[in-house]
Amino acid sequence: MAFQKPRKDSRLESFILKLVICLWTLAYVAVQSPLARAASPSEPDYGSGQKPPVTLKKHFIAPEGKTLPEGVARLRVPYQVQSGDTSYDAAGHQSKSSFKAKGTGSAFVLEYGLSDRLSLQWVTRFYHNQSVLLDAAHFKGSPAFQDLKSKAYSQSFAKLGPGITPETLVPALEKATSKLLADKGACGGQPANCLTLINQNALMAPIDLTEANTGLPGLFIKAGTPIKDGLAAYGRQVDGMVEQKILAGASTYERKGAQGIGDSELGLLYQAYDSAWVSYSLGVGIRLPTGRCTHLGEDDLPTSRCTTDVALRQNLDILPLSNLMVSWQHQTEQMLRKGHYGTQGQSQEQVARNRARQVGFIVLKPSLAFLNPTLAVITLKGGLAYDYDSALVSKREGTVLTGQGNEVVNQVYGVGLDGTVVQWPLALEVEVNEPLQGRNKSVAPSTVLTTLKAYARF
After folding, report:
1. What digits encode the pLDDT tens for the residues 139-154?
2. CB within 8 Å of 417: residues ≥ 6 apart
């Protein structure tokens, strides 16, 4: 059975505590630093315009959910690399999965400020490659491996009796050999007497016992050898051969996913409140299933969530200190229209979601401007991201298949270089997401996300 590590809520609490202590220490240094008090950040220019892209004052940190100024466009190109084998069961217990997920993808995100309070956004995702590989070494200790092993034993030794397993093989061989020897006149013709002598390791093979005279593939017990020792050695030999055969197939297993375009999104973001220290915005959007949808049970990985969804987003950015920003984002997604897998004229599969999806993050972003004004372009990031996803429900020819909704909480940390501080219309961010907690997640990979941003005014 696969090793399972008990769920530890203290791991999440410890991460939060360390994050708060670290960032507030940076914040305290930032407030006390003479360089920070002397620093006077200039407001960046975008393209040929003169307006700054934000109205939050006295800081070097760009807010996460702020709308763009009127006439300003921003292109974001994120590139994502995923890899990992962390798994969570229904009770939230963490373990190492027998499978390892790998993949890369990117997106094209174009935003435009319709006014100083209203921005339009278009998102298209792309999947470059995605696959699930089987870790043969770890798979050996999984329940699935034991099931395959038991099936192989049951099929190979069906003539010894029904349901032969690795644990019952040797006793069944001892019983069959006892009958074989008794039929040849040994032990007074009584199988029970032979079995007793074998169990006492007191019965030697009267002749060479081979596949030819026993019907057992690969068996060889030399005449004069204790039968019990010979059958035990044969059992170990069979066990090794069965495992080797299973693992040989497992080591080459790779479930590859679809490539190409993913889902697309269209949305509007409205700046509901904006002051020198607080910014709050509301967004609404729709996700279109422009990617490839695969039904449950198909040996492929999709590039689409399959359904048409509507989303409501909230963004809150708070600047409690001149060099520290707290950003919160929460998005609720609800299915608007069911999806379909298949083509017209064929049996189509109806795809739906059984509840709303909740996804978001809360991060703290300290600027390094307190060390030196020239370091104002560098911003750190640390926090938590969460995704409480809905289950996929599919219906095909009257058969309903229901997946499991899953939950994942990731720890987030990263660094950003914002050229707009020095009036360069470019920015670069690198962010790492690592699983911290979860539920019903067969594989929760770690993610490295690199995002390039470019600005222009029209």
Report:
1. 766 677 777 788 888 8
2. 377, 378, 379, 427, 428, 429
